[in-house]
Each structure stands twice: as C-alpha cells, then as structure tokens.
Amino acid sequence: MPRTSYHHGDLRTAAIREGFAVAETAGLEAIVAREIARSVGVSPAAVFRHFPDLEHLKAEVSRSAREKLARLMLRDLEAFGNGPLTAELARQRFERIGRRYVEFAVSSPHLFNAAFSNCGASPAREDDPSPWNILLETIHDLVATGVIAKADAELAPVAAWTAVHGMATLYTQGLKRVSGFDDDPADTVIKLIRRMLYTDS
After folding, report:
1. pLDDT at site 2
2. What is the Cα–Cα distance from 62 to 57, expressed in whole angstroms?
3. Interacting residues of 40 by C-beta distance below 8 A, sequence separation 6+
4. Which of 33, 61, 95, 141 is most buried, most CB within 10 Å of its CB?
5. What is the rounded distance in angstroms from the CA atom of residue 67 to the CA atom of residue 44?
6. The overall pTM is greater than 0.70
7. 36-84, pLDDT tens digit by residue?
8. Do residues 132 and 67 lie in contact, with contact meaning Cβ atoms separated by under 8 Å?
9. What secondary structure, in 3-state letters, does 8-73 show?
10. Distances (CA, A) of 22 to 3, 45, 93, 133, 189
C-alpha cells in the first residue's frame, strides 16, 4: 500500500516528500524512481511528468534537506527573542547556528549528505529558507556589533561555512575512527571560528 497519499495535481510534492523520507534513512543514492512511484501509488512515467529525470528529483530532495536545516537554525534564533542587539547576543546567535549545523550532521548524517550532494541538476527554485542567507544575517550582526572587523566581513561567511562544514563532514565520515579525535565537534569548531574571526580572540 502506498505510504504517501496526494491530492490531484500534487504528485510532484508527494514524490519529493517520499524521496526525502528515503534520503533521511538511506541516503540520496537510495532514491529509485520505481520505488518512489510505488510508494505514491502511480507509475514511474507519471512521476517523470513532473521531473525531467531522476537527478532533478534528487535535486529537489537535496533542497528540501537544506531547508530543513535552515528551519532548525531559524527556530534556534527565534529562541533568543527580539531584544536589543548586543555583541554578546550576536555571538550567541552565530555560535548557535554553527552548533546546529554540526548537530544536524551528527544526528542525521544521511540527510546532511543529501543536502550537500552534487545531484547533477539544479532544483527548480532557490532554498527558502536558506542556511547560507541565515549565516549572512548573523555575520552582519557580528560586524555591526564589532565582534568581527569590517575588513573581514566579505570573507567571514566563507571562513565560517568551510570550518563548520568541514568538521561536520569529517565527523559523519568517521573522523574519530581514522584520527583518534575525541573532542566534541561543535565545541571544537566554535573555538576555531572564534580564533579566526573575532576581534577580541
């Protein structure tokens, strides 16, 4: 029996949702057109009336995975409320989304890898919400409050992203096993970013 039901005209959404579920438990490479079709109760041909090929479906699943991460990041930021922006608050918000990124990778490694896989196709629309845009906003606050120097504003997002993504990727691919590294990955990368970017480090 199909696991996913859909309303007329909503097969595209149902296929993406089902692909997301597969990616979450087994990875993006486990998405197979005939299984997606079976799960939503249609033929593979019906699915491919909504996607040029399987890679385009995977690209939509990848986007959905990034958007899930972004929604988690936004939820974390909302917990800080709407008080006056101070340097300490800017630090806390920025470091919270960095931790969330690593935690997402550790808790959902298949989904994390799906979010940042090369699918051979582009999604039909941009990420909304976008982890990158959320990072840019928190970097802007750090610059505005003097935590990061204005001269570093352009490169700061790239430095932060590569550091956090690198640690998350290494951890999901067996960092402890191959290196003997045993510290908390989120704590480690936050300390690294502080030393790289903060003016008072």
Report:
1. 45
2. 9
3. 2, 3, 4, 5, 6, 11, 14, 15, 18, 47
4. 61
5. 26
6. yes
7. 999 999 999 999 999 999 999 999 999 999 999 999 999 999 999 999 9
8. no
9. CCCHHHHHHHHHHHHHHHHCHHHCCHHHHHHHHCCCHHHHCCCCCCHHHHHHHHHHHHHHHHHHHH
10. 12, 20, 32, 27, 30
